[in-house]
Amino acid sequence: MDNLNKGFARFVLLAVVALSTVVALxxxxxxxxxxxxAAAADPDHISLLSSTALVIxxxxxxxxxxxxxxxxxxxxSITKLMTALVVLNSKQDLNEELVVTNEDVDGLRNxxxxxxxxxxxxxxxxxxxxxxASENRAAAALGRNYPGGITAFVAQMNAEAQSLGMANSHxxxxxxxxxxxxxxxxxxxxxxxxxxxxxxxRDITTTATVSVPVGLRGRAVTFHNTNPLVAQSNWDIGLSKxxxxxxxxxxxxxQATITGHSMVIVLLDSxxxxxxxxxxxxxxxxxxxxxRLTVSQL
Length: 298
Known about the structure:
The chain has helices spanning 2-41, 79-89, 123-132, 136-144, 149-163, 185-196, 199-205, 275-297, and strands spanning 50-57, 62-67, 73-74, 97-99, 120-122, 182-183, 209-212, 221-224, 237-245, 249-258, 261-270. By secondary structure, it is an alpha+beta fold. The protein has a single domain (49-297), classed as Beta-lactamase. The chain has a five-stranded antiparallel sheet with strand order 2-1-11-10-9, sandwiched between helices. Strand 10 and strand 11 form a beta hairpin. Helix 2 runs parallel beside helix 6 (185-196) and helix 4 (136-144) packs across helix 5 (149-163). The chain is globular, with a radius of gyration of 26 Å.
């Protein structure tokens, strides 16, 4: 009887082992498939958190890296680069004094602002606040003070986009708070390069802080750049703009000199407060490693 029990137990054990092997096979077969999908999404293994990324060598327009570059994304405050282009290309008086009104207050998302209603400063200072600190009321006031008002300003933004060849871009306001401000990675690379042709945009967007007398009784208020990389000595940045609304995720566009080459970097829809900054550093390290590898092969 004992021998019979032992034999039966051995049979059960062998059956369990065989069954577990059969069950394990599909999972093992699925592993290579999951790995291939991950590799296809990031062929150079930079491990970016941004869902869309594009890196272009500005000197020859060669695409050095792209990740999911085709979708049309909301672009949030990157919109303000186009706002600055329209203001400068229209030759508006940069010394003219503008005043914040109730029309400039964000009623769409109820975002906060360092600019109180009634604050006044030059158009130049409004540009600085919009580009450095991404001040929405400053951008709204710039659009509102365009000949024909904000409607004419937005129409000119879209006309400027078309003239630059940004065929997949559209603008609805001057601040980027509207989710209808959309573009692609390639179009934004074009916008960055157009902005880079404007020395004033280069200078303003790479300034770490600006102080503007817009506080009560003319008190100076300090505005900090939304991209902390412009203040870091290991970066050589020629243009920068960040953006964020819920629909867009964290966004960042830059022109920067890396390994002696002028690069345009576009990072869209990154999730996590510091994700876009981490991605920018990962791109720079990848370009530096790529350059060292190229040199070693010569």
